[in-house]
Write a structure and sequence with these properties.
There is one protein chain. The protein has nine helices and six strands; from the N terminus they run βαβαβαβαβααβααα. The protein has a six-stranded parallel β-sheet with strand order 3-2-1-4-5-6, with helices on both faces. The protein has a single domain (19-202), classed as 3-Layer(aba) Sandwich (Rossmann fold). The protein is α/β, with parallel strands linked by helices and 208 residues long. The protein is globular.
């Protein structure tokens, strides 16, 4: 399988309108926590890049709430079980933290990782449970470096995530640079079952 991002899909940004992937989570609760804020980020992107479109792959559990929240938007395509169809067509993906980050990386698509959480819950539980400096699996795989931007925990204003996405689009060379780094990271493990194998490897790197 050709893992080159966007292989065979025609002209890509910046030579065509930007295509942004949105992955709010695979469960209803994750969609309800993340997607309303991601919609605000989408609107912020559209204010500067008015031709931007968005692709949202869903699962059987997430499809209904995603469809409800995005109903009536002509700039959005939602497809159940469409991850491997939609993600390779994206120039940038904004995804909830989890195994989806490794799946996006397998397609060498640049990403921003988010995880919306109540700040009080994070202070009471998250910071004591999470012992790694980085949370996104891709950054853990890369050796705890900032290969991809992560906003974890994500609370308060949505503007920092919006601005991060806009900076990528204003400077397409940053998209290309991240894509090259993702290729270097994923190439050694890019074979059948790579997403699952990489996720297992990421989990093994996290302290018990």
């Amino acid at each position: 399988m050709d893992r080159t991002a966007g292989a065979g899909v025609g002209p890509r940004f910046p030579h065509a309108a930007p295509v942004i992937g949105i992955i709010p989570g695979s469960r209803r609760s994750e969609v309800e926590a993340n997607l309303p804020h991601l919609i605000e980020v989408m609107d912020g992107i559209r204010r500067e890049f008015s031709t931007a479109t968005f692709l949202v792959p869903t699962t059987s559990a997430s499809n209904s709430p995603v469809q409800e929240l995005l109903r009536g938007r002509a700039d959005v395509t939602v497809k159940q079980d469409g991850f491997d169809d939609l993600v390779p067509r994206c120039d940038l993906v904004i995804t909830k933290s989890g195994t989806s980050t490794v799946h996006v990386a397998a397609w060498r698509v640049p990403m921003i990782v988010v995880y919306r959480i109540n700040p009080l819950l994070w202070e009471l539980v998250g910071r004591w449970v999470v012992r790694t400096r980085k949370i996104a699996m891709v950054n853990i795989l890369a050796g705890q470096i900032d290969l991809v931007p992560e906003f974890i925990p994500w609370y308060g204003s949505n503007q920092p995530v919006t601005e991060c996405a806009l900076e990528f689009l204003r400077h397409p060379e940053r998209l290309a640079a991240q894509r090259e780094k993702l290729d270097a990271l994923m190439a050694p493990i890019d074979h059948p079952g790579a997403s699952l194998n990489a996720a297992r490897l990421a989990l093994s790197l996290m302290p018990s």
